[in-house]
Each structure stands twice: as C-alpha cells, then as structure tokens.
Write a structure and sequence with these properties.
This protein has 212 residues and is of the alpha+beta class. The chain has a single domain, classed as NADH Oxidase (3-Layer(aba) Sandwich), CATH 3.40.109.10. Helix content is 42%, strand content 12%. It has a 4-stranded antiparallel β-sheet with strand order 1-2-4-3. Helix 2 crosses helix 6 and helix 3 packs across helix 6. The longest helix is centred in the middle third of the chain and has 20 residues. It is globular and about 60 Å long. About 8% of the residues have low confidence. Bound molecules: flavin mononucleotide (FMN). Flavin mononucleotide binds next to strand 3.
Amino acid sequence: MKKSIIAVLAAGLVAAAGCANGGAARAQDGAGDGNAVIEAIMARRSIRQYKDTPVEREKLQLIAECGVNAPNGMNAQAWEVCIIDSKEWIDGVNEIYKAANPQAASRPGFRNMFVNAPAVIAVAAPDDTYNGVNAGLLGENVMLAAQSLGLGTCCLGGPLRFLQSSPEAAPYMAKLGINPDYKILYLIAVGYPDETPAAKPRDLSKIRFLGD
Ligand SMILES: Cc1cc2nc3c(=O)[nH]c(=O)nc-3n(C[C@H](O)[C@H](O)[C@H](O)COP(=O)(O)O)c2cc1C
C-alpha cells in the first residue's frame, strides 16, 4: 500500500474517532461497540449539508479504491467510477438545474443540486441486474470508507435522472467519458459534513431466521 494511502487511513481513523457522527448516531442498539466496521455502518447517514472545504484527492482516490474492492460477479469488474471534483462541471450543471427548478434552487441553504456537496462520484455499469448488484456493493464500500475518514456521503438518484433527461446537460454528461455500453446508475455526493442527522428507523422485522 502506498505511503500516501497509509497517511490518509491514519488521518481517517483520527477523524472518525472525533467525528460528530461517530458512533453516536447508531441506527439500532446492539452489538458492535468498539468494532470500527460496525460502528462505521451504524453511524453512516445520508448527508445533505456540507462544508465548503474541498475533499482531498487522496481521500477521493482511496474511497474509490475501496469501492472497486467490492465483491463482484466473476471479478469481471464491469463498472466505471468517475470522480467529479471539477467546480466548473458542478457549477455548469447546477446552472442548468437552477434554470429548470427555480423553486428548489431558491430554498434556504441550497448551494447545488448534489445536496450541496463539493464532489460527486458517478458509478456506471452495464444496465442489468447483476451489474446493478455489483455497482451497489461498490457504492456501499465507498460510503463506508468515506464515513471512516470523517467524510459524509449521500447516494443520489434524483439529480442523476435530471442530468440524464436534460438536453442542456448532455454535453456535460459526455465530458464524463463513460463507456458507451454502460449507464450511470447512481451518484454519490461526497464532502465534509455540516450536519449530523439522526438515524432513520429501520424495520428489524424484515430480518428472519429459518432455523430448527
Ligand atoms: C438508490 C438511491 C437513491 C437515492 N436518491 C436520493 C436522492 O435523489 N436524494 C436524496 O436526498 N437522497 C437520496 N437517497 C438517500 C436515501 O434517501 C437514504 O439513504 C434513506 O432515506 C436512508 O437514510 P440514511 O442513508 O440516512 O440511513 C438515495 C438512496 C439510494 C440508495
């Protein structure tokens, strides 16, 4: 593992330990105290307000690498991850969004269409069930790795639908250079959190055992 990645990981452990979300916002009571993986899973929440601070490229690279280390069918790695931290691109599509959605854009606290994040990750794959599963597993790795580094994330479908249906956004989408046989399946907003939302309740009755 590269030295810079080790440094990012070490900084991330410190950030996660002191992070406002760390451990406090556990979705459920239960096992896991002191287990960094379980704590990160339980503490992760969708973040929709971010600080202005840009996210370091080393951290964006590391969380993307965690993403592509997800299990995937036959290790075919039929996916693409495009990390967008270009202010020009984000501001450009945001202007198109604001023109089409003036009401949403005038809400207090609105900074951009990506729930105000300074960076966005586009996850693309062939548009079929198994590759959708692969891409989803990749995304959760990205979001948990981000959580462990003190970053916030939010999986986004709505803004993607807008971008895919807006003729004005087409040149921006083309700039992402995604394999023409792939489709962007979702986006992940990434940034330093500026809110600590409470966990939304989870229905544990959806979990069943079939045992003797
Ligand atoms: C496929 C997918 C699409 C989503 N799209 C959006 C979206 O467009 N806007 C948004 O604010 N949140 C979006 N979310 C986030 C969910 O609303 C959120 O994960 C859910 O309410 C549970 O909250 P939590 O992530 O804080 O646990 C999306 C999540 C997923 C998995």
